[in-house]
Amino acid sequence: MIQPGAETPRPLGYVPALDGLRALAVALVIAFHYTGAPLGGPYGVDLFFVLSGFLITTLLLEERAARGSVDLANFYLRRARRLFPALAVMLVAYLVYNAALGRDALATVADHGLYFGNIYFVVTHGADNGLGHLWSLAEEEQFYLVWPPLLLLLARARRPLYWVVALLLCLMLYRGFLILDGASMTRLYRAPDAHSEGLVLGAVLAFLRRRGFVAGEWAGKLGVALVVPPIVAGIWSVGLPTFELGSFLLIAAAVGETEIAGWLSAKPLVWIGTLSYSLYLWHEPVVWAFHRHDRLVALALSLVCAWLSYRYVEQPLRRRRQDGMETAPAVSAAAAQYHDV
């Protein structure tokens, strides 16, 4: 519900339950890539999308409210410093591995390192090269290239939430048209124009929170009820709206004082959530290097690589960023915690 008098909520800050959700998302993706089950494993990416749209929009709205404007140049610089180093380390390791086997992987690395992985996948119709999972990072980065300036324009409108909801509906109708027109699953799942409604749905939640929306216990329970059937059934093109709505409700419950927020804040989930970005980066190229065999060993090695990346690449950059943010208190502390921002 929307609470009167709560038009300007406190800054989001760090919410452990959101890392718990991130852990569930990456677990779904890894389980699908390693075992083919559950059938709805690819929905883990959609949970990432809704969460990312919520976090980025929240941070932009908080900065605008505190400063009266948003430093877009600094926004993009923060993203590059936060995301690219860990990706670059993994891609260098991928290049070295292929070079040791006498293979030239430079063109493949360039396609994915420059965040064109989703377009590359649609054009080439896919290839098992160990980097196919990076399409989702490309989708997010392309969205964030467009969304911040568009958001600032929408925020000047009298009722910006209405415009964001209208954008969401247009994207859903467009996707429905593509389905009726016989678009391929590759086109629907990986093309940037056909799979961005989850990101915008997260933005809707960010606007609602700014207007005082507070989720009750019902949100977490209904969210679970909505996300489980699509995961089990695995009918992605049909189940996507249901799953995304469930993700919307789970995130709303996670940032509130709900029972499910407590469950999602369990230390093992939070620990996996803090590693989720590096774990997402490494899990696919590692199992690919094992030729899809010895998957338990590949999973263990992926966890080791993810921890090393988190400990020696992500954390040092985060500490530097937090030090720099001491002079820029208007930016929420969440900006230094989540890999999406």
Layout of helices and strands:
Layout: H1 16-35, H2 43-67, H3 72-100, H4 106-113, H5 117-124, H6 135-155, H7 160-180, H8 185-190, H9 197-210, H10 217-233, H11 236-254, H12 259-264, H13 267-289, H14 295-325
Helix pairs in contact: 1-2, 1-13, 2-6, 2-9, 2-11, 3-13, 3-14, 5-6, 7-9, 9-11, 10-11, 13-14
In words, what does this structure look like?
The chain has 341 residues and is mostly helical. It contains 14 helices and no strands. It has helices at 16-35, 43-67, 72-100, 106-113, 117-124, 135-155, 160-180, 185-190, 197-210, 217-233, 236-254, 259-264, 267-289, 295-325. The longest helix is centred in the last third of the chain and has 31 residues, at 295-325. The chain is globular, with a radius of gyration of 19 Å. Residues 325-336 have low confidence and may be disordered.
Features:
single chain; 341 residues; mainly alpha; 0% strand
In short:
The chain has 341 residues and is mainly α. The chain has helices at residues 16-35, 43-67, 72-100, 106-113, 117-124, 135-155, 160-180, 185-190, 197-210, 217-233, 236-254, 259-264, 267-289, 295-325. The protein is built from 14 helices and no strands.
